[in-house]
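Feature request disguised as a bug report, sorry. It would help if multi-protein outputs had a clear separator. Right now it looks like this:
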Amino acid sequence: MPLDPEMRAFLDAQAALGARPVYEVPVADSRRLAEERAPLQFGAVEEIEAVRDVRVPGPAGPIGTRLYTPASPTPLPVLVYFHGGGWVMGSLDTHDGLCRSLANRTPCVVASVDYRMAPEHRFPAAADDAWAVTTWAAEHAHEIGGRADRLAVGGDSAGGNLAAVAALRARRQKAPVLCLQLLIYPVLDHDFTRASYERNADGYGLSREAMRWYWDQYVPEAAQRDHPDASPLRAPDLRGVAPAAVWTCEFDPLLDEGDAYARRLAEAGVPTLRRRYDGLIHGAVRMPSITERAWEMIDDSARALREAFQQGAAR
């Protein structure tokens, strides 16, 4: 279908501003712009019962983690959430509105993770931090008003990559048992020749060249990119990983790798819910002030989490 008219207007406005691509400006400037734009693109955030920041022990020191608790009887299910931003930018603040909405609408406790980012911290730093908070949430669920037997991981873009990696590690370690991996237009491979990379190479927000740059920051050594902890789609066997919900967008370079991962999961016998949002671009889930259809993705995510939690752990 055609590009969503509200998305078209947004992209045209961005082009008129003459913003330089991420790979042509200092990382600090890109991070600052991401922080400034996030609240404008999300709009008004929902009220929630409680928000508090904690420090979780990690492999290189404490990991900042923000806990969102809705006004619901505890103990609640727990979602460990990893923000997007190409492993380079994004923060607890850029994803504050989304995490509030997921916590309220599921309902569940959301643990949003301030993992280490590139280029200061290369692969596998982000994946290691994601795993540390995932295991901490399982071990300390009762302390945060959660249930260890109702645990999920999720993320958007690079955060979806980290969620998929956490699910693979949980399968390898046989713990913790996850009810769901929520993958919102995830990064799953480093193959820039897929048809969606060609078709959506430029003009839709996230570009092919930007993705090349993000990979160069996070995993500069080409030989490491085939590791499943970097490219989950390269995992030789997906049997036994957590049930998945995989969301993709039509005008996104990452569309095909998301579809490929969903197919491989299903072929491996993993319960997999797959949705493609026609007319939308990468980043749409954090753009309710740009398009009302962002709420469709948010509500679908909350519904998938709610149903997975109700069904309980798969194994």
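(second protein starts here, but nothing in the output says so)
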Amino acid sequence: MAHLNSQETKLVFAADLGGTHLRAAAIDEKGCVYHRLKKPTPRWSEANDIVRALVEMARECENQTRERGVVVTSCIAVPGTIDVEEGVVETAPNIPCLASFRLADALQNELHRPALIENDANAAAVGEMWQGAARGVGTITCLTLGTGVGGGIILNGKLWRGADGSAGEIGHMAIDPFGGVVCGCGAEGCLEVYASATAIVRMTIDALPDYPLSTLHKNEDLTAEKVYHAGQTGDELALEIFRRMGTYLGIGLANLVNVLNPEMIVIAGGVANAWDLFAKHAIQQMRERAFPLPAANVQVKRGECGDNAGLLGAASLAFSSSD
């Protein structure tokens, strides 16, 4: 482990294991991001492959930031159920080779410095509270809309992990249990199958026959981003899909308002880039369905940290753990 003198800046190696990309950076105690890395997420077959990729990125960050400070610890944001105290990935549906794997110990053994792990959506929530839309706010819920839908809950400034570390699975809140759409978790009608990028593509393909004039018929490799761009040009199908997506999301937000009474709900993740097409529908539904007083008081904001949310949150958690 590197030795730190009083003049040197402490840095954290932070990484965010996503379903599409693996992101990493060295981050200081003020939230400044140095030498940010982004690579496609490989199709790993063994946990040690992930460890190897993370170690390579950590060493690159360390080599590129020697003049800025010293990397003193690491924190990895992982999509799954995490035992933070033990450093174990209990379940990781999108990266099954990590299930029951002691990732923190493996990294600590390779890098010879402390390491911890956290759920990726929890990390994003912490990042938005530290450096983003929720600065100065004490009680928030944060939804990350990407390939799936993640969630993080912070109550009175403290991350709420629940009784066994699985709190915040907002994407698996039942919105339409009779809809017949099966989620990756095995249940029907989860928010994730109506408000994620994957859901936007599925709903668009299902509705294409009803919109023969839609420009989206020309897209063979359909993506949520292409649906968004079509919506920006006034394509009726795209606008209808985001209206539906926003409506379902709003039902979920109303449930969160009634159960948690947060000061703020932050909408982050890649799908948040389509804010102008879905937000008004989501907020309208929330206000119509939730109790009037908390619905009127809650702020609903788009995340400000972008792809850095999970990295910043991981760094904040690492600094907090070392205090």
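Even a blank line would do. Unrelated, but nice: The longest helix spans residues 236-260.
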